[in-house]
């Protein structure tokens, strides 16, 4: 893989050339910024920017005014190769709060088409209805130790409006949810986004995470996606590197709430 070329393609395909994530969302291009305006329960934020020291502060102020005018909490998704180099500092000075940094990792879909089976007694099943969503939320809450109501809202919205744009999977052991994961499939894109992949502690290290990646890779290949993309935590990065994913940049969510940061 030509890392620089693939990173440039990712920027053009998924950021500068972004598509709405749902039928009730929209993408807007204004000046040197591409922003995503989410629909009901959807994500809003800045996906891409082409700024320098002379216009960054004005662009930040413009996005704050725009999204707060809509009543939206929003995120500025900053990548390690974005400019100006001090954009993160400027965002914090303007009232944003930084979440933990993650690593943008890209893998060839074809490299993940392996026969990776879950451990004995574990089944991987698709999530297509509200009952499955509730089990997915349960697995997510147990895996990450935090409230999963945001996942319920996201899945309910996607399954009702754009079911073909999301693949959700649940791993169960004797009917008990032990892991979950999802994949975003934007029409016309070359990158399928892998999200989640959280496994409850007692089941970690047994191959469930690997099986979920392979399962999603097969679906992505069938639908014509050449690359798989992950925003990897420090815990998942070494696993993904062993599987052949390449770290191409970092990504940090800077969140603006207009007041106290709400967490949950």
Automatic annotation (TrEMBL):
<protein>
    <submittedName>
        <fullName>N-acetyltransferase</fullName>
    </submittedName>
</protein>
<dbReference type="InterPro" id="IPR000182">
    <property type="entry name" value="GNAT_dom"/>
</dbReference>
<feature type="domain" description="N-acetyltransferase">
    <location>
        <begin position="122"/>
        <end position="264"/>
    </location>
</feature>
<dbReference type="InterPro" id="IPR016181">
    <property type="entry name" value="Acyl_CoA_acyltransferase"/>
</dbReference>
<dbReference type="Pfam" id="PF00583">
    <property type="entry name" value="Acetyltransf_1"/>
</dbReference>
């Amino acid at each position: 893989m030509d890392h620089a070329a693939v990173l440039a393609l990712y920027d053009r395909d998924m950021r500068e050339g972004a598509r709405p994530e749902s039928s009730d969302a929209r993408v807007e291009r204004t000046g040197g910024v591409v922003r995503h305006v989410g629909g009901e329960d959807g994500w809003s934020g800045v996906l891409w920017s082409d700024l320098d020291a002379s216009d960054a502060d004005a662009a930040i102020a413009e996005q704050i005014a725009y999204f707060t005018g809509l009543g939206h909490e929003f995120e500025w998704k900053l990548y390690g190769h974005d400019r100006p180099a001090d954009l993160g500092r400027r965002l914090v000075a303007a009232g944003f709060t930084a979440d933990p940094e993650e690593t943008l990792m890209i893998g060839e879909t074809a490299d993940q088409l392996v026969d990776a089976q879950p451990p004995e007694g574990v089944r991987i099943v698709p999530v297509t209805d509200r009952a499955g969503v509730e089990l997915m939320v349960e697995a997510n809450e147990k895996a990450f130790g935090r409230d999963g109501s945001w996942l319920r809202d996201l899945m309910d919205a996607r399954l009702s409006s754009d079911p073909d744009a999301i693949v959700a999977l649940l791993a169960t052991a004797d009917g008990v949810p032990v892991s979950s994961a999802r994949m975003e499939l934007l029409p016309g894109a070359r990158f399928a986004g892998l999200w989640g992949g959280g496994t409850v502690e007692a089941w970690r290290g047994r191959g469930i995470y690997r099986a979920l990646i392979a399962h999603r890779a097969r679906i992505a290949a069938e639908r014509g996606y050449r690359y798989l993309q992950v925003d990897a935590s420090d815990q998942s990065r070494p696993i993904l590197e062993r599987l052949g994913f390449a770290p191409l940049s970092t990504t940090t969510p800077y969140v603006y709430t207009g007041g106290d940061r709400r967490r949950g």
